[in-house]
Write a structure and sequence with these properties.
The chain contains 22 helices and no strands. The chain has 381 residues and is mainly α. Helix 13 crosses helix 16 and helix 19 runs antiparallel to helix 22. It binds 2-acetamido-2-deoxy-beta-D-glucopyranose (3 copies). One 2-acetamido-2-deoxy-beta-D-glucopyranose (NAG) binds next to helix 7.
Amino acid sequence: MKSRAVALIKFRFLFAASQNFLCFPKTSNTRVYSGIAAITLLPVNETLEEKVVGEVGDHPKNSEDVFRRWGCTATDISRIFRRQPALRHADIGHLQSRLSTLRGLGLNSSGLVKIINCRPRFLSCHINHGLDERLEFLTTLFGSRELLLKAIVRNPSLLTYDFHNRVKPVIALYEEVGVSRKELIPMLMSRPTLIPRTSLTEEKMEYIRRTGVSKDSKMYKHMVTIIAISRLETIREKLVNLEKFGFSEDEVLGLFGRSPFVLTLSVDKVQRNMTFVLGTMKLPASLVLSYPFLLFFNLENILKPRFILAGKIQEMGLEPQIKGPAMLTALRMTEKRFLNAFVSCHPMDVTIELMDSYRNAKDVKRLAEASKKNPRKGFPF
Ligand SMILES: *[C@@H]1O[C@H](CO)[C@@H](O)[C@H](O)[C@H]1NC(C)=O
Ligand SMILES: *[C@@H]1O[C@H](CO)[C@@H](O)[C@H](O)[C@H]1NC(C)=O
Ligand SMILES: *[C@@H]1O[C@H](CO)[C@@H](O)[C@H](O)[C@H]1NC(C)=O
């Protein structure tokens, strides 16, 4: 009871402070409570009153005190100090004002810990300058306070990017090329580098056109944002890497258009997966153009063991076999469905033999990982 009451007062006090500090429209429950007024509402208890006056009336002794009054637990505070030791000696006034700002946004202590964890210097940044204008813009963009807060916890830099020279122009740029604000929200959430790294040069726009992805396509926003945050050299490297497997530049760009995420795979990953698909599975390269998902499979967990099992089934003369189009279907199945369809459909002794072979094929993974220290680079064909 006592601690709840203290917490209540602390909360009201801080909330009031944050309302003073920010210029949000005041609603009925945001009146400024003085510490004393709130105390008189509580059952009289000397000890409690002393404590409350001690908490509210005094100035905080140090930054730890500031965090504690703001609502951080001892664990939160130790996490914060571990991540950014300089905060132990932070200027109390500045710290209080930053924290009030953040409280006004609806941030709580667990959100604060996450923010400090990913941006240790965040509380030393000038987040208060021009804050109202920025918040108004961002709240409109995200559509709600809740979503904005979520975005800020994921990417605290939303409060520190240069608002006029970076945030606004970047959002306007995307609108100009046909990515609406609404479509941009999930992109902003999933790609924290979107604002600082976006550039859409004429060359990049030409690539986007050549991928053939239409502005109405669900993939358009992905295509545009991935190209916008990639360096031109990187895009070229990835193009050339796929061309080595016999595709023309337009075929590769078409592949990007159908499956923009191929552009997020590293040159190395594409090479290893392509090499397996072509070299070991003996599938034609052109199949990757129609089934880009082949590039996304985990080689060691799905592609290789299922392929090895297919060989075993053929060798044992069993039906159904996993070949031709059935192979593509089989690769996309969940583990359970795959085993039901091709392994446990046989008599017990056969099932056991197949299962052994499948498990062995997966076990190779561990051995392979142990020797993976020195990954072979370069082109194997
Ligand atoms: C007043 O506080 C003391 C010490 O915390 C506690 O033991 C006591 O139960 C409280 N009295 C009332 C009426 O809340
Ligand atoms: C902190 O706020 C987030 C929303 O921003 C919420 O999901 C979470 O439950 C809150 N945590 C606590 C301890 O109140
Ligand atoms: C093939 O690509 C997928 C998706 O990126 C990845 O998880 C897998 O590890 C890759 N395989 C190899 C051998 O790199």
